[in-house]
């Protein structure tokens, strides 16, 4: 058991993107302060945090100075260098812990972890060279997807292999990085569960949301998802099993494929997640406040869904629709304060309440 942080305490956030920004806003609502650490100047979270440190993760002096100002440390993304965590752990507790990061930072480690839990995933095999790729393709079959084991997100670091002649180019696309080959999964749709676990071991999961992607980037999440009652229960139980096995503290996103044979785990994200943004308009306590509560040692809040919600990401030039969105009845706009519009860049999101039914 850990002590509950008092109001006025400071939470350190590694990463100053939009997730860090929304975590800082949630913390402020609870009377908690935030200090953001980010290598980039003027990160989105810097607009709303109480303090910002701009320094590379390799700057040990900056890390220690940052660590001395905070009571607990959390993060908005999982690819934090191990050496930085080695330094920060001597300054303040890091929540969620190192094991969750270790598992999620490497796709092969993650898949093996899930398989060891008895959870179903896509077939997979490690690929370190072209011989491995040929053997993996023969074992798993084609089509398949070759992915870098580390540092991939929003469709980056991936290459589809539809036929044997695609293998050489796919391997070249990995640029020498260790990779994993994953077999295609015949699924009807993808859903995700946003789950939370407190320091006391209490677990609370939000209703599963249904996701649609385009170009490897999440476009929409809709709740309720198309699931039977049994599938909904299974999805929540899978998330709870993962949270408990990792002795997790905080919010996690668990993505699942819905197949005729049951649910398959696609991946886990040890942080607040894009597919959980709907909770801002659908629940009394959204995913950001839930995460702050957990890492601060507070009891988890009530995440019961009281509304049906459709979340739409505003990507790149979508943000130019702002005048129309601002005039749209029922549209709740969340912009991230990013000044430069780029193709594929998440500029904000919109939540639309589509119904007022409470989940059961």
Describe how the helices and strands are arranged.
Elements: E1 10-14, H1 18-29, E2 33-38, E3 51-54, H2 60-67, E4 72-75, H3 82-88, H4 98-104, H5 107-116, E5 124-127, H6 130-140, E6 144-148, E7 158-161, H7 167-173, E8 179-183, E9 189-197, E10 203-205, E11 209-214, E12 217-223, H8 229-245, E13 250-259, E14 262-269, H9 279-282, H10 287-295, E15 308-315, H11 322-327, E16 331-335, E17 346-355
Parallel strand pairs: 1-2, 1-4, 2-3
Antiparallel strand pairs: 5-8, 6-7, 6-8, 9-10, 9-11, 9-13, 11-12, 12-15, 13-14, 15-17, 16-17
Relevant terms:
single chain, 360 residues, alpha+beta, D-amino Acid Aminotransferase, Chain A, domain 1, 3 domains, 11 helices
Give an account of the 3D structure:
This protein is an alpha+beta fold and 360 residues long. The chain folds into three domains: 10-94, Rossmann fold (3-Layer(aba) Sandwich); 123-183, Dna Ligase, domain 1; 189-355, ATP-grasp fold, B domain (D-amino Acid Aminotransferase, Chain A, domain 1, 2-Layer Sandwich), CATH 3.30.470.20. Helices cover 27% and strands 29% of the residues. It has helices spanning 18-29, 60-67, 82-88, 98-104, 107-116, 130-140, 167-173, 229-245, 279-282, 287-295, 322-327; strands spanning 10-14, 33-38, 51-54, 72-75, 124-127, 144-148, 158-161, 179-183, 189-197, 203-205, 209-214, 217-223, 250-259, 262-269, 308-315, 331-335, 346-355. The strands form three sheets. Strands 9, 10, 11, 12, 13, 14, 15, 16 and 17 form a nine-stranded antiparallel beta sheet that branches. Strands 3-2-1-4 form a four-stranded parallel beta sheet, sandwiched between helices. The chain has a four-stranded antiparallel beta sheet with strand order 5-8-6-7, sandwiched between helices. Helix 1 (18-29) crosses helix 10. The longest helix has 17 residues, at 229-245. It is globular, with a radius of gyration of 20 Å.
